[in-house]
Amino acid sequence: MDDQVEYMLCQQRRDFFSPRPEWRNSPPPGVNQLTPDQAAKRFIDTFQLEGVDFTSTVSAKDSGAVNLPVWLWVPEDNQKELNWGPYKRSKTLGGVSITAEAKVVNVVYTMGDGGRVTCNGPGVAWEKGSGKTSSPSCGYRYQKMSPGEGSRPYEIGARATWKVSWSGGGQSGVVTTYTESTGPGYVGELHVLNSRD
């Protein structure tokens, strides 16, 4: 091969290849950056928060009855990062470093019979010995049996309100978001047997 031709081919190959891509935490000059508020909202939108994993005194068959107190709570073992919080993460988006922390502030339970109850915090767990006392923090009473004369459950819905506090870029704020979950509520009827001595 002619030395002159070989030199020209080498020059073409050198011009053909573009520089290696370079990853940066902030955009290069001339590229629009996000505002702290925009970066925070985009970051929070990536959170895959889950519904609360709650239970109640009517979650099993033949466990509840009309007019008896119902206790609702989120067991301590079920209070995970993604379904109760706190869930804390940091990330840089659009040249802004954001730190955000999400946690549940209250749960609204729709009881399946048209009633609802709002509970702040996880509620108090029912324990043997509590008897027929009402829950001190998160309770309800049904006025009628669940479908099938108590053989089929009400669907109890739990809508959790999450408060997400964020800071970054010299600013801070709070975003509210919600998650949903459901559980069964079996409500039968107590039968009193009268007997004569």
What does this structure look like?
The protein is mainly beta and 197 residues long. It is 12% helix and 34% strand. It is built from 2 helices and 8 strands. The chain has helices at 3-16, 36-45, and strands spanning 55-56, 69-73, 87-93, 96-110, 116-120, 139-141, 154-168, 171-185. The strands form 2 sheets. Strands 3, 4, 5, 7 and 8 form a 5-stranded antiparallel beta sheet that branches. Strand 3 (87-93) and strand 4 form a beta hairpin. The longest helix is centred in the N-terminal third of the chain and has 14 residues, at 3-16. The radius of gyration is 29 Å and the shape is elongated. Mean pLDDT is 87; it is low at 1-10.
Concise synopsis of the structure shown:
With about 200 residues, the chain is mostly beta strands.
Structural class: mainly beta
Shape: elongated
Mean pLDDT: 87
Report the total helices: 2
Q: How many β-strand stretches?
A: 8
Alpha-carbon distance between the two ends: 122 Å
**How many whole angstroms does the radius of gyration measure?**
29 Å
Strand fraction equals 25-35%
Order of helices and strands: HHEEEEEEEE
> How does the major sheet shape up?
5 strands, antiparallel
* Percent in helix: 10-25%
Uncertain regions spanning at least 5 consecutive residues: 1-10
Key descriptive features of the protein:
five-stranded antiparallel β-sheet; disordered N terminus; mainly beta; three-stranded antiparallel β-sheet; 197 residues
